[in-house]
């Protein structure tokens, strides 16, 4: 099939690469000329395992362009994968979706299906249909389908090629038939429903995971108070198939471009119907507090951060990505800088993006050892393999005071004891 994808971000680019891998011809459109130029030169603008290889392997079936009109004109299916950022009140900014819909409506010269893959509030499919009708230039029939995406950054390629399900929200058998032509080569299970239900699946699923994280973080907090060990608790819980072990890792809260925004959007959506989603409200509040939990713990060791040498390991909101959007590290670094600390950071993938947030305020280090040398305190915000595998004894050897506050439980308590460091983690006893 001839497919166009609007947006070459984390979702659009992975979608384009995977559809090409399955034999489709894909034109991937982005308004960011720099991103498109990079892609045309064979480089990926984002760090995502396996993506660059897939782009190279399928380059004959992939086209990158800023010319939306040319890409949409003759496409059988156009997938909208542009950003849907949050507004200050928690609602969703649909500006980019509206622009893409308008461009498609003006360009389309044959019947086609527009599949909305961006995460959008329930009812947006109807709105996209209206925007298309208002701007349509040619007598063509354009069907709008909801096709939410469930990939996780860091494992996005695998998540898309071997997804647990393809959700299609369709309003006609014809649209369903076309979308199945797109996805049949993946040989994955389908959930076919109406558009609004499909839109709701995405929020209900994402927010459920956020709830799970906040729940286990609260259990971890109580574990610390009563002397239980969260790692053992979650091992015992996770083996129950009704619970499952995924998203049961205690830490310093969720971040990224999805959970924070989607929890707020679902809460806002329900509030618009005069319904307060109390579980979601609680999950959001717990997360906000959890994010700066380590700072509060650090305050029990030092009176202030002013003039202290502080090492920060891990900037991205999770390992395997260069994305720092809404990462807990940002909120923590902001507090440290505000209070006058000298901050030295290390991250294997996120430093380029971090430089757009903190230019000269922090020192970017090329190794973990460089970041922690002579530090008074070390914070760990992301569980990168490089950090997990770092010799824990080096903290004692290189830091001025070996005080390590680990928000992702990267080390065993035994290894911390043997290393002779002061070690605070989440949901586990303090080592000192
Ligand atoms: P992103 O910010 O990485 O990418 C969006 C891209 O769209 C940008 O490159 C931007 O330049 C481009 N764009 C904006 N307007 C455009 C237009 N009119 N035409 C073409 N391109 C345009 O965003 P993302 O992380 O890929 O997320 C996209 C959507 O998918 C969001 O709704 C998000 O909630 C959802 N989603 C994201 C993830 C994730 O893990 N990132 C997972 C599932 C769903």
Identify the strand order in the major beta sheet.
Answer: 3-2-1-4-5-6
Strand content: 5-15%
Mean of pLDDT:
97
Shape: globular
For this entry, what is the oligomeric state of its chains? single chain
Keywords: NAD, Oxidoreductase
Organism: Parageobacillus thermoglucosidasius (Geobacillus thermoglucosidasius)
Family: Belongs to the UDP-glucose/GDP-mannose dehydrogenase family.
Active site: 258 (nucleophile)
Characterization of this structure:
Keywords: NAD, Oxidoreductase. The mean pLDDT is 97. Strand 5, helix 6 (124-135) and strand 6 (142-146) form a beta-alpha-beta unit. The longest helix is centred in the middle third of the chain and has 32 residues, at 195-226. This protein is 43% helix and 14% strand. Helix 5 packs across helix 6 and helix 9 (195-226) crosses helix 12 (278-291). The radius of gyration is 23 Å and the shape is globular. It has 432 residues and is α/β, with parallel strands linked by helices. The strands form three sheets. It has a six-stranded parallel sheet with strand order 3-2-1-4-5-6, sandwiched between helices. Strands 11-10-9-12-13-14 form a six-stranded parallel sheet, with helices on both faces. It has three domains: 2-193, NAD(P)-binding Rossmann-like Domain (Rossmann fold, 3-Layer(aba) Sandwich), CATH 3.40.50.720; 202-290, N-(1-d-carboxylethyl)-l-norvaline Dehydrogenase, domain 2; 292-424, 3-Layer(aba) Sandwich (Rossmann fold). The structure holds nicotinamide-adenine-dinucleotide. Nicotinamide-adenine-dinucleotide is lined by residues 6-12, 29-32, 35, 68, 81-84, 96, 99-100, 118-119, 149, 151, 153, 257-258.
């Amino acid at each position: 099939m001839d497919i166009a994808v609007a947006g070459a971000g984390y979702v659009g680019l992975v979608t384009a690469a995977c559809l090409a891998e399955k034999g489709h011809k894909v034109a991937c459109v982005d308004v960011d000329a720099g991103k498109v130029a990079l892609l045309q030169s064979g480089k990926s603008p984002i760090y995502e395992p396996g993506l660059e290889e897939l782009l190279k392997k399928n380059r004959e079936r992939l086209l990158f362009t800023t010319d939306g009109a040319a890409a949409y004109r003759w496409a059988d299916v156009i997938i909208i994968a542009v950003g849907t950022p949050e507004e200050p009140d928690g609602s969703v900014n649909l500006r980019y979706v509206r622009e893409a819909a308008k461009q498609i409506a003006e360009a389309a010269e044959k019947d086609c299906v527009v599949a909305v893959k961006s995460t959008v509030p329930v009812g947006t499919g109807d709105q996209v249909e209206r925007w298309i009708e208002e701007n349509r230039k040619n007598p063509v029939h354009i069907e709008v389908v909801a096709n939410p995406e469930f990939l996780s950054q860091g494992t996005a390629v695998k998540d898309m090629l071997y997804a647990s399900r393809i959700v299609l929200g369709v309003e006609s058998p014809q649209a369903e038939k076309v979308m199945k032509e797109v996805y049949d080569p993946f040989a994955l299970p389908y959930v076919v429903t109406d558009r609004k239900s499909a839109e709701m699946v995405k929020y209900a699923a994402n927010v459920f995971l956020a709830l799970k994280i906040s729940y286990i973080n609260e259990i971890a907090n109580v574990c610390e108070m009563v002397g239980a060990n969260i790692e053992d608790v979650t091992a015992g819980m996770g083996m129950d198939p009704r619970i499952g072990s995924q998203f049961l890792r205690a830490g310093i809260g969720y971040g990224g471009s999805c959970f924070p925004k989607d929890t707020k959007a679902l809460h806002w959506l329900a509030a618009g119907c005069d319904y307060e989603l109390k579980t979601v409200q609680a999950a959001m509040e717990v997360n906000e507090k959890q994010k700066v939990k380590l700072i509060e713990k650090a305050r029990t060791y030092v009176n202030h951060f002013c003039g202290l040498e502080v090492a920060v390991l891990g900037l991205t909101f999770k390992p395997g990505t260069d994305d720092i959007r809404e990462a807990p590290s940002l909120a923590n670094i902001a507090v440290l800088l505000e209070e006058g600390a000298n901050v030295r950071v290390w991250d294997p993938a996120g430093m380029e993006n971090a430089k757009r947030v903190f230019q000269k305020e922090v020192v970017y280090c090329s190794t973990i050892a460089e970041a922690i040398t002579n530090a008074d305190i070390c914070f760990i915000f992301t569980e990168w393999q490089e950090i997990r595998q770092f010799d824990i004894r080096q903290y004692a050897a290189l830091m001025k005071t070996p005080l390590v506050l680990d928000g992702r439980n990267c080390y065993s308590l035994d290894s911390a004891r043997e290393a002779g460091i002061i070690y605070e983690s989440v949901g586990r006893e303090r080592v000192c």
